[in-house]
Each structure stands twice: as C-alpha cells, then as structure tokens.
Amino acid sequence: xxxxxxxxxxxxxxxxxxxxxxxxxxxxxxxxxxxxxxxxxxxxxxxxxxxxxxxxxxxxxxxxxxxxxxxxxxxxxxxxxxxxxxxxxxxxxxxxxxxxxxxxx
Amino acid sequence: xxxxxxxxxxxxxxxxxxxxxxxxxxxxxxxxxxxxxxxxxxxxxxxxxxxxxxxxxxxxxxxxxxxxxxxxxxxxxxxxxxxxxxxxxxxxxxxxxxxxxxxxxxxxxxxxxxxxxxxxxxxxxxxxxxxxxxxxxxxxxxxxxxxxxxxxxxxxxxxxxxxxxxxxxxxxxxxxxxxxxxxxxxxxxxxxxxxxxxxxxxxxxxxxxxxxxxxxxxxxxxxxxxxxxxxxxxxxxxxxxxxxxxxxxxxxxxxxxxxxxxxxxxxxxxxxxxxxxxxxxxxxxxxxxxxxxxxxxxxxxxxxxxxxxxxxxxxxxxxxxxxxxxxxxxxxxxxxxxxxxxxxxxxxxxxxxxxxxxxxxxxxxxxxxxxxxxxxxxxxxxxxxxxxxxxxxxxxxxxxxxxxxxxx
Lengths: 105, 408
Prior knowledge:
CATH architecture of the largest domain in chain B: 3-Layer(aba) Sandwich
Distance between the termini of chain B: 51 Å
Oligomer: heterodimer
Number of helices of chain B: 11
CATH class of the largest domain in chain B: Alpha Beta
Number of domains of chain A: 1
Shape of chain A: globular
C-alpha cells in the first residue's frame, strides 16, 4: 500500500460508528474512501499473487478468503468472460458488502 | 420463498392502509385535522435552568425578565429573539417528574418510561422512524450530535438515528466520480449475492439488513448530499441561525425536514450548570436564541410549521437555590419545556410554579402526559402493541393523559 495509514491506525469506530448493522455502518462499508482504497489495493495484491491474467481462480480466491466458500453457479454467471482488474474490484466490493459477509464472518 | 414473503408483506401492508383510510373518519382522524408529520427535538442535555430561561423569577438570582409576544408572559433577557417569536410557541412551566439523575431522566424524557430491567424502550425519534415512512434516499431519523440516550430499543437497529455532524456535512455520501460508471454493476452484483444468501438463511435477518443497505445506497445520491450541505444556504441565512454547532444544527434540521427526513434531534450540550451557572446559561442562551428563533420563523414562513412539531426540552430543571459555586443543582419537581407547530396551540403558557420556581402550583404535567400528548399530535396509537425480541407484547407508553390545553 502507498503512504496511506494502515487500517488499524484509523480507529475503525470513527469510520464505521460503534453500532453494528446501522445505517452509518452500511454507508461506510459501501462508500467510505478507505473502503474504495482497500478494494483497489486488495485487487492489486491478488494479481501479484495469482498472475496478471485474470481467471476464475482470482474470483474464487475472493470468495474463499472472505466467505470461506466457492462462488455458486449463479454467482459465477456474473463474472465477465474476459475479466479486467476492475471486474475483480467490483466483485471484491460486492462480497465485502454482502449481508453474508457482514453476518457470518 | 423470498418472493412469497414479499408478496405476503405487500398484501398485509395493502390491507392495512386500505382499512386505515376507511376507518380514519370513524376514529376522528379526518384528513382535515391538523397532525404533525415531522418533529424537530431540540435536546438540552444536562438539565437546563427553567428559572434562567422560560420561567424567570424576581428576586431569585435569575436574569431580568423581558416581555414576549405572548401577553403577560416573560422570559429571560438573554432570549430576545425568541421573545419576538413567542406568539408561535407554547411554554409549559409545570413539568414534573421524580427522576433527578441525568441518565435515568434522559431515558424518561426520550421514551416516556422510567428505566426498567426487562426492556429498553425506543427513543422518540426511533418511534417516529418506525411509524412515519420516509423516502428511501433519506434516513427517517437524524440526530445532529450524539445524544447520550439514542437507542431504538426493541424496535431494532433499523430505526436507530443516523448521526450527522453539521460541521462536516459531506458525510462521505457522494459516490466518487471515478467509480460512477461502475455503480450499477456493483449494485447488481450485490443484489445477486443477497438473493443467494437469502436462499440459504433466515430471511428475516436478510430483510432487515437489506432495508438498511437499500436506504444507504439510496442516500448516496446528489439529492441527499444537497440536503445535508449547508453551503447551499445564503450567508445571510446561516448567520441568522448562528455560526456555532447548535445554530448549524437547527439550519440542518430545517433543510432535512424540507427534504423528507421525519425526525431530527439537535443537541445543545452543557446545561449541567452547577458551577458559574449564570455565566454558562448566558453563553448557552447565545446559541439557543438565534438558532431556535430562526428555525421557528423559517418553518412558519415556509408553511412547514403546521406539520412540524418543534419541541425544546432537557432532562429536568434546576434548583431555585443558588449553590456555593454560583450555580444551580438538579431539580425534577418543576421544570419547563416549549412546543411549537405541529397542530399545538400557539402563544400559550400552561401551568405555573411558585415564586421560587421549586414547586408546580398549577396544572402539573407529567412526562407520561407529555408523551400521550405527543402521540396525539403525531397520530400514533398509544394502545398499539409491539413485540420485544423476547416475544413479549408491550405498549410504548402507559398511564399518561393528553394535555388538552395544548390543542384546544
């Protein structure tokens, strides 16, 4: 990551509020600049690890690391045929904001 | 499964509204009756001195009384602009309660109930969030500043306040320009994931979270960003409200209500004036006077006052005696509060305290009476039963009687 402070330095309550499942927290997860930055750097790191050419394995890695499961057939259908890093970022953002991630993990 | 649920919900909702519109005339809720649709609560944390604001006394160490636009009613000399708008207000000088502790009294004045072991009752704004629908691009209940009790209780976190700071209006609401083309795609990915998750888990959990997330997504719109942005106002208007936290909060409250937020609570803290109380109350009056008077005047000018109830209160009043540190201590036996708009009578003073301000001598009003009156003004059914998470049916308020003088 660039010269940005680490997430741990940012006092998460300041960004996400003290109340889980609140509107404030939902909003922060969807749209706080720290989240957008984390999604970008996360996708970059995946590429470093799994290779520049983006494959289904990249997406599977997102699901496994955040939800500890592989994507369902239905979810696989939303991956693009020739995915770009932007598609990977979009998937990462969606998994991070999924109610499944927020409840079970 | 989800689909059926939604349809069931829809049908239930549909039948409910249909019946409500048929029954309304029978219940005396004709559409012509004036009912509040919004509420702005000005919360004076710490227990404001009634004697040094709304109920001044001669020879009691208090400030000089000045005349108001209510005939025969005087208030503190440090509230001159409010004195000019007083004909729009009703001052209740005979509030009384038994809770003289900040935490317990704050809970009481926000819920209408004394604290108890079994359940946390919802704060007034959360009740409004539950009972008054708001457009999906706005939070129904906004709190400007963090009030020490702001719990939605058994109504659930969906009805918790959205806490806004008037000094930092952007709230990270605007979706970044650079990501604009990808917003739609991300939403559809998210929807697909929710559908998948809903198939495998308790749909109740998913539904509540989905509603919260749906509202958050809706709030990331230009319209909402605008509603929160005080820079949209002319400098002349901002100056009239006062360049301070409370003044900006009052202006934000007006903007939010105009946009469709139903309940706004604005915090003015530091009323716990045990030490150098007169200096402190004078300072706080300097924030209160421009903020509250501008709010009431502008709501009236914009024809919003009839449908918006403005309520000024704190958790209790302060002692008639001045203590050794030149301040006043807690007093719940007699204190004042102020209402305006929302169908409440105008230019009236209800109740009276003795010449020291210690006891109510005329028309005592209890906190349950206040809540019965607010429910009446808001059109909330006091007999309606809610379910606690332990599946215990409870009513939100009990035992209070509507203060008729507030309405007739």
